[in-house]
Specification:
The chain is of the alpha/beta class and 332 residues long. It has a 6-stranded parallel beta sheet, with helices on both faces. It has a 6-stranded mixed beta sheet with strand order 7-8-9-10-12-11.
């Protein structure tokens, strides 16, 4: 659903105290959309703070402005105070308040603030005053670009905003492997014509791994990879002991699942990890195989047709067994 753009224009016509919030364990789309939207609103005269529930991965530290993010896990009181004082709360890249943990309560309790939700996931929760949501969109960064264009300011997208938008689109589409549409290529083409250095950005995004991350990838592919060619399924898993042995931190496992999907015989890939309190699943697929349905039906999750995730409160072994029980039917 995308509400009439005329409904939001009066809200943005006068300077406001704005808080931009995105989800826990932020990815390139969460970070990129927050930075681009922040720069856009600042250009309109608003006073903007960006807040994340948890820290962003180190491999996004090169992004201009990311160092100014407020992190709830590090300074909860300051973050809650900013939310309480905000006149406008912009929620990016999540569809329900439980994705931002305890900050969701503060968002609900601030009755004076106008709430603006921009997201590309299914079934947005009814908590906002204005919705710019499209589950057919590749990413929230695509929606940021479209929103700025709908506001009549497409030509005012700065170099920093263009880099942030490009980062969100290329990471959420897996380098344009899924969730693509004709519009994003026209958008990237327009940004490229205005000077976007996509080669440099590709290096910053994808050629920025630490030695530990590369060794972890090697370990996953040599010791934790299970492939069932007859089923067309590949699985990588990590135990809690693996997390301790490799000292795995935020961002260290990013992209591992994509290597599983590179295997010729694999049509559906899973990355299953034992977290402190839950077991998480990341799911990817090729073609007309809906991992969104698999995540929704059996793992308390969802997302996109070819890229989704879920979780269970169970043991790693039980989750893996359940995955092998149900996943083959979705491939067939």
């Amino acid at each position: 659903m995308i509400d009439d753009i005329l409904e939001i224009k009066p809200v943005l016509s006068q300077p406001k105290d704005v808080v931009i919030i995105s989800h826990r364990n932020p990815d390139g789309d969460a970070i990129g959309s927050s930075l681009a939207m922040s720069d856009y609103l600042k250009s309109m005269g608003h006073f903007v703070k960006c807040i994340l529930p948890s820290e962003y991965p180190e491999n996004f530290e090169w992004m201009e402005g990311v160092e100014s993010f407020m992190i709830y896990d590090l300074k909860p009181d300051s973050c809650l105070k900013a939310i309480q004082q905000a006149d406008l709360i912009v929620c990016l890249d999540f569809n329900s308040l439980d994705r931002i943990d305890k900050m969701g309560v503060a968002v609900s309790e601030n009755q004076k603030a106008f709430k603006f939700l921009m997201d590309h996931h299914l079934d947005p929760e009814p908590f906002a005053d204005y919705y710019y949501c499209d589950d057919q969109s590749s990413s929230t960064c695509e929606l940021v670009y479209r929103f700025i264009s709908d506001m009549g300011h497409e030509t005012e997208i700065s170099d920093a905003m263009a880099e942030a938008i490009y980062t969100g689109i290329i990471t959420d589409t897996g380098s344009f492997h899924h969730a693509t549409n004709p519009l994003i290529f026209r958008m990237i083409g327009s940004l490229k014509e205005r000077g976007l250095d996509d080669t440099s950005l590709q290096n910053n995004i994808f050629n920025n791994q630490t030695e530990k991350q590369m060794r972890l990838l090697g370990y996953c592919l040599s010791k934790r990879l299970v492939v069932k060619k007859e089923e067309g399924i590949g699985l990588v898993y990590l135990t809690r002991r693996d997390y301790q042995n490799f000292d795995i931190q935020r961002g260290d496992t990013e992209g591992i699942i994509n290597h599983v999907l590179k295997i010729r015989d694999v049509k559906l890939a899973a990355f299953i990890t034992a977290q402190p309190k839950i077991v998480k699943l990341s799911l990817r697929s090729k073609g007309e195989i809906s991992v969104q349905a698999l995540a929704r039906d059996h793992f308390n999750g969802g997302g996109h047709f070819n890229a989704s995730g879920g979780y269970m409160h169970s043991s790693l072994g039980n989750v893996i067994d359940k995955f092998w029980e149900f996943a083959p039917s979705y491939v067939k």
